[in-house]
Amino acid sequence: MMCHERSEILMEIARNGAISEAVKQESLEHCQHCATCAAELERQRVLTAGLRALRDASTALSASPALEQKLRAVFEQRQQNNRPVRWAAVAAGVAVIIAISWGVLKPRPVEQEFGSADRVVQEFIRVPYREVIPLEGGYVVRVEMPRSALVTFGVPTYGQGTEMVQADLVLGFDGVAHAVRVVR
Amino acid sequence: MKPAAADSDADLLRRALSGDAESFSVLYRRRHAAVYRYAFHMCGSEAIAEDVTQEVFLALLREGHAYEPGRGSLASYLIGIARNQVLRILERERVSVPLMEEAEEELSTERWLATSGDVLAQLTLQQTLDALRKAVLSLPPAYREVVVLCDLEEMSYAQAAETLSCAVGTVRSRLSRARKMLVERMLSRVQSARCPA
Asked: Per the CB < 8 Å rule, is A75 touching B24?
């Protein structure tokens, strides 16, 4: 082995790193006869000592106590914000179910759901309260609704609010809408 | 359920994301210092380290659901978030640390390249540590981070590779190169102290 090929081995010896005993002994014996490698090993040892001293001096480094209080306040604020949203989510889900049952939103037959003539005008977007209610399963329902009703799901609307549009809703098993896309 | 010291990071995170503030606090106290130190050693600024720590834990609150315990430890996950923040800051602000020229006091060759006596005792001198810290900060980020993770945070090569999303061999070779650069810079400092221009 050439001297320049030993640099990683000398580093591992100096760091007390993972290295086989045989390789370590062979390199240590080499260092007894090679001044260049011996000096390199010594420099690596001194560097290791220096870095360990720097590590020890850094142990006490820590963010200010105020940061924990700040994050805790953010945490609690998020929890407070989420509570009414949960109710809003459930209410919106119930509203969807009621609307479907009353015929305001008209579910289309399943076989039409992925019809080739459908034109998806946008990808699914999450309804605003989605992030606090993980979706563990559900189904897609295609509905027709007044364009103005899209606002309920956080979709910006343009044109006449009374115009009927088709949309796909991703509903959880609890009936809560998680995402919506306008189809046509 | 009251969080306990023995609870795993993953359990604490799951409960925190379900709204348990105490679990969040326990997790924060357990992991924030390593995040802070990583950012501090990478940027050399307490203010930036504090900002990065804050952003890491806010991101955890926002996107902690994305953490998958099977893909690695939460400690590595947090350092990974911190790393993204730090690299963005370094890129944006070009955080640079004036190198060895600005070390306040001279380092003697004997102190740095001591070949006898209590090396460690000499190296704990504050001026030596300051010079070494600046030398670490002067490394290119890709080399600096392996020194910070492997030598200052004592991560194994495997943990560092997981954090940096690279091969273990890459970590080892970068560390070897980084340490050579550190030695060269410290020697350069010693020589310039001996022979001022």
From this structure: yes
- Count of domains for chain A: 2
For A107, A134, A175, B169, the CA distances from B72, given in Å and listed in that order, are 44, 22, 35, 18
Please state, in angstroms and rounded to a whole number, the distance separating the CA atoms of residues B104 and B66. Answer: 46
Return phi, psi of residue A103, to 5°: 90, 5
What's the CA gap between A127 and A118, in Å, rounded?
22
Does A29 share its domain with A69? no
Closest-CA residue to A46 (of B47, B37, B132): B132
The average confidence (pLDDT) of chain A is 77
pLDDT tens-place string over residues B76-116: 999 999 999 999 898 887 655 544 444 444 455 555 555 43
How far is the alpha carbon of B35 from chain A, nearest alpha carbon, in Å? 9
Instruction: List the single range of B37-46, B168-177, B186-195 with lowest mean pLDDT.
Output: B186-195
Q: Are residues B89 and B104 in the same domain?
A: no
Is A162:A113 a contact under the CB 8 Å cutoff? no
| C-alpha distance from residue B30 to each of A182, B36, B71 (Å) | 46, 12, 20
Q: Are B137 and B192 in a shared domain?
A: yes
Last residue of a domain, one of B47, B77, B95: B95
* Residue B57: both structure tokens together: 């834990």
Domain shared by B147 and B85, yes or no? no
Q: Chain A contacts of B114, Cβ < 8 Å?
A: 46
In this structure, are residues A143 and A105 in contact, taking their beta carbons and an 8 Å threshold? Answer: yes
Interface of A with B in 116-135 (CB under 8 A): 134
Q: Work out the minimum CA distance from B179 to partner chain A, whole angstroms.
A: 8
Q: Which domain holds residue B122?
A: 99-197
Among B42, B63, B95, the domain boundary falls at B95
